[in-house]
Amino acid sequence: MRRVLPLLLLLCSAGQFLHADDAKPDEEGLIRTAISSYKTAFDKGDAKAVASHWTPEGEFTPPGGETIKGQAALEKSFTEYFKDSPGAKIELESVDIRLISPGVAVENGVAEVILPEQEPSVTEYSAVHVKTPAGWKLDSVTETEAIVPQSHYEQLKSLEWMIGTWVDEGDDGSVETVCKWTKNKNFMTRSFKVHIQDRVALEGTQIIGWDPDKQTIRSWLFDSEGGFGVGIWTQTENRWTVRTLQVLANGEKATGVNVITKIDDNSFTFRSLGREVDGELLPGVDEITIVRK
C-alpha cells in the first residue's frame, strides 16, 4: 500500500512529456494544468486533493497486489502512504504518452520514488487518462516491479578512464582507438584503426568485460584480417598487465604480455613483451605514449 501514492504522482506528472505530435495544443495545456495541480497536492501530502485527480471509478493495481477501486479507497491509501512516507519525491524516465482519441490518453513509463534515507524504488507503469467534464483524470493504472539489469560496472570502473578517443602518432602512420561503454556498462568496446599514410591498413574491435566465473577482467579481440584472441587482465595500482593468446588469420598461434600504465586522465603508456608466434620468439614493442584526442 505504501507504493500507491508515488505511482499515482508519476502517472499524472508524466503527462508533461506528452508528445506535441500526438495531442492538440489546447488538450496538452489542459493535461499540463492537471499535472501541476496533482504535484502540488502530492507535495503538500493532501490525500483528498490527490484522490480528486482520479475518476470516481478510478482503479489502481500495484505490483502483486489487489486492485484499489474508487476515490474513497484511493484517498485512504494516500492517507496511509503520506503518514508512513513523509517527504517522498519522484523521478520519471522513459515516459511515453499517446492521445489515442480526443478524450483518452495512454501513458507508459518508469518511475523512481525517492524517500529520505532509503533506497529508491523503481517501477514500470501503464496508465489511462480520460477527459471528463471536470478535466483530465486518471482512470486506470497498472504498476509492475521494474527489472533492474545486472551490471558489472563496479568490477570495470577502474578502467573507466579509458573511455574516449586515443591517438598514437608515428613518422609513417598512426593508430586511433575509440573506447565506449555498452548498455548497462557491462562491457567496454575499443575500436581501433591503423593508418599507414593515407590508408587504413588494419582495424578491429576489442571487447573488455568481467568474467564472473574466473573472477577477473577478460578481453576478446577481432581484427579485419580474420584474426582473433583473448586476454586476461590483472591490475597493480595504475598498471594493467594483459596476458594474450591470439589465433592469426593463417592459423598460427601468438602469445604475449601487454602492459598498460596510466600516466593521467589524458595519457598512458603501452609496451608488449614475451611475444611468440608458434613458439618463435619475436622482438618486443618498446614503450610508447598514447594520448587522448
Main attributes of the structure:
alpha+beta, Nuclear Transport Factor 2, Chain: A, Lipocalin, 2 domains, ten-stranded antiparallel barrel, six-stranded mixed sheet, 5 helices, elongated, disordered N terminus, DUF4440, Steroid_delta5-4_isomerase, signal, NTF2-like_dom_sf
What number of structural domains do the residues give?
2
Q: Which structural class best describes the helix and strand composition? A: alpha+beta
Shape: elongated
Order of helices and strands: HHHEEHEEEEHEEEEEEEEEEE
Strand content: over 45%
Task: Kindly state the percentage of residues in helix.
Answer: 10-25%
Task: Calculate the mean pLDDT score and round it.
Answer: 86
CATH overall fold name of the largest domain: Nuclear Transport Factor 2, Chain: A
Q: Sheet bearing the most strands, described?
A: 10 strands, antiparallel, barrel
What is the spatial order of strands in the main beta sheet?
A: 7-8-9-10-11-12-13-14-15-17
Give the tally of β-strands: 17
CATH architecture of the largest domain: Roll
Q: What is the radius of gyration?
A: 28 Å
Distance between the termini: 53 Å
The CATH top-level class label of the largest domain:
Alpha Beta
Number of helices: 5
Low-confidence stretches: 1-23
Can you describe this structure in just a few lines?
The chain has 293 residues and is of the alpha+beta class. Helix content is 18%, strand content 53%. Helix 1 (4-13) packs antiparallel against helix 2.
Write up what this structure looks like:
The chain is elongated, with a radius of gyration of 28 Å. A hairpin with a 3-residue loop joins strand 7 (164-169) and strand 8 (173-181). It is α+β, with helices and mostly antiparallel strands. The chain is built from five helices and 17 strands. The chain has helices spanning 4-13, 25-44, 47-51, 71-84, 153-156; strands at residues 54-61, 68-69, 89-101, 104-114, 121-132, 135-145, 164-169, 173-181, 187-196, 199-211, 216-223, 228-236, 239-247, 253-264, 267-277, 280-281, 285-292. Helix 1 (4-13) packs antiparallel against helix 2 (25-44). The protein folds into two domains: 4-145, Nuclear Transport Factor 2, Chain: A (Roll); 153-292, Lipocalin. The strands form two sheets. Strands 7-8-9-10-11-12-13-14-15-17 form a ten-stranded antiparallel beta barrel. Strands 2-1-6-5-4-3 form a six-stranded mixed beta sheet. It comes from Gimesia chilikensis. Keywords: Signal. Residues 31-138 form the DUF4440 domain. It holds the Pfam family DUF4440.
